[in-house]
Amino acid sequence: MEKWRATSNLRRSLKSVLNRRLSPGSDFTYFNEKRSFPARFNPIRDQRSLREANAIQYRYFSSVSTLVQRNPSFSTLNSDDISYFKRLLGEKNVIQDEDRLETANTDWMHKYKGSSKLLLQPRSTEEVSQILKYCNSRCLAVVPQGGNTGLVGGSVPVFDESSGAKGSCQIGGNVSTNAGGLRLVRYGSLHGNVLGVEAVLANGDVLDMLGTLRKDNTGYDLKHLFIGSEGSLGIVTKVSILTPPKLSSVNIAFLACKDYSSCQKLLMEAKRKLGEILSAFEFLDNQAMNLVLHHLDGVRNPLPASMHSFYVLIETTGSDESYDREKLEAFLLSSMEGGLISDGVLAQDINQASSFWRIREGVPEALMKAGAVYKYDLSLPVEKMYNLVDDMRVRLGNLAKVVGFGHLGDGNLHLNISAPQYDDTILEQIEPYVYEWTFKHRGSISAEHGLGLMKANKIHYSKSPETVQIMASIKKLLDPNGILNPYKVLPH
Ligand SMILES: O=C(O)CC[C@@H](O)C(=O)O
Ligand SMILES: [Zn+2]
After folding, report:
1. Distance 364 CA to ligand 1 centre (A)
2. Which of 48-52, 111-115, 383-387 has the lowest mean pLDDT?
3. Average of per-residue pLDDT across 103-114
4. I want to staple 257 with a disulfide (CB 3.0 to 4.6 A). Which of 310, 322, 378, 382 is the partner?
């Protein structure tokens, strides 16, 4: 009955094709708008002793071992510094307003909170260069900030570092964090799409690597050091980037699978049968779907007959409508006949398409609304990845909800643990277990969100000691005083 309904749904919806034009650059935009949520900090214990120790304790990590000590070699901002920046940038680009500083000092997750007293808004490479030259000579630490939408505390000041450029999600931030995104399965990572970079080093030198050549084999390709280095080696001021042509035919299906193994087989079939038109293959489990339906206004379940264990969103993008439609239709029907899909619908217009995406993209927002959330962004072999979610459920029992979703097409699991509040008992069940599990399966502890502050001290789970040593030497070479985004990426 269910299968019949689904097949008829699919057949019906396959009659019309969705045409949706992607806006330029949208493939690389991670979160393109800032959203605000109520702060949900747990009280920090013993504030005074932390201040005396010149240390900070993050709300998320309430155990003592995660204290971060302020680097004693950094200077403290004084009135001469502020006068210098005002002369350089003009009064209105030197921000000391408390509300604006509060926003810059707080990350998107409301987990990390710094105490920077100054936000600078440079408008040119030359101004960035002058700022860094000055800060380097004074040993003032700097946190480059784009849209401040990161999920690992990479763009918030930890102590009193001066903040750099600020606005909405920006291409410099995307490149600096090698932001992943929903269509990596089709377009690849920013390492493959960035043709050139201009970066300003800590001493103010401008490194011009802003080529547009597709082929350039003249030795070390240094631009890759700046892609994904989270502002720790330099500030990216310009990029040349591939912009794939807008494609006119976009189809989106929202499907249900009875178990994880069906999702996995469906992915293999999609890669094989849809080939180059497959532009997204996303999944969410039952827990994720429940959260979205419960916490987000106006979201409807497109498959309301019954709740399923897993949901998959498949998008194809191409330029030949009838070819794309036939290919997707054949794929969906054969997958349904083969038992890989238990129910499904295909968007018939732009509103339906957006509503399917809203479900998938709404998961992080729903998690935020549900309470405290522990986030893990893991690259793992697709066939093993959901075992970790199951293991975590056993470990946590009734303590917390374990939610699995992510970019199945890229082997990227977003494991999120949702609880009413942050709690050491929960954290002890999760860490280091999650990291050890990932290490054992030769995965990565950060598939796309970076290391930031949250995982700087965990880097050894994904990089060998020799590699970390070379990374530290590169950091020392390019930023000898360590002023650029301190306490992030490398162990502190
Ligand atoms: O919140 C997360 O864990 C993932 C956020 C983002 O990378 C996504 O894919 O929605
Ligand atoms: Zn993601």
Report:
1. 6
2. 48-52
3. 80
4. 310
Please state, in angstroms and rounded to a whole number, the distance separating the CA atoms of residues 166 and 163.
8
Question: pLDDT > 70: what percent of the chain?
Answer: 85
Take residue 99 and report the two structure tokens written for it: 């509300």
Closest CA to 3 of 333, 346, 269: 333
Overall size of the chain counted in residues: 492
Give the pLDDT mean for 384-410.
98
Which overall architecture, per CATH, does domain 176-241 show?
A: 2-Layer Sandwich (3.30)
Alpha helices, DSSP H only, in 275-340?
286-295, 321-337
Q: Is the CB of 416 under 6 A from ligand 1?
A: yes
- What per-residue confidence (pLDDT) applies to 148? 73
Which ligand places an atom closest to the C-alpha of 358?
1
Question: Which token pair is 122?
Answer: 């440079």
Q: What confidence category does residue 158 fall into, taking pLDDT thresholds of 50, 70 and 90?
A: confident
User: Which stretches does DSSP call E strand in 89-227?
Assistant: 94-95, 119-120, 142-143, 162-163, 194-200, 206-209
ipTM value for the complex = 0.99
Are the C-beta atoms of residues 282 and 406 closer than 8 Å to each other? yes
How many Å lie between the centroid of ligand 1 and the Cα of residue 432? 21
Distance of CA 321 to the CA centre of its chain: 32
Q: What is the pLDDT of residue 116?
A: 87
Q: What is the reported pLDDT for 56?
A: 56
Q: Is the CB of 404 under 6 A from ligand 1?
A: no
- Domain positions in the chain: 176-241, 249-441
SS3 465: helix
Ligand 1: nearest atom to the Cα of 360: 10
Mean pLDDT score, 140-156:
80
DSSP state of 229: S
Is there a shared CATH topology between the 176-241 domain and the 249-441 domain?
A: no
Which CATH code is given to the segment(s) 249-441?
Answer: 3.30.70.2190
Cβ–ligand 1 distance for 458 under 6 Å, the answer: no
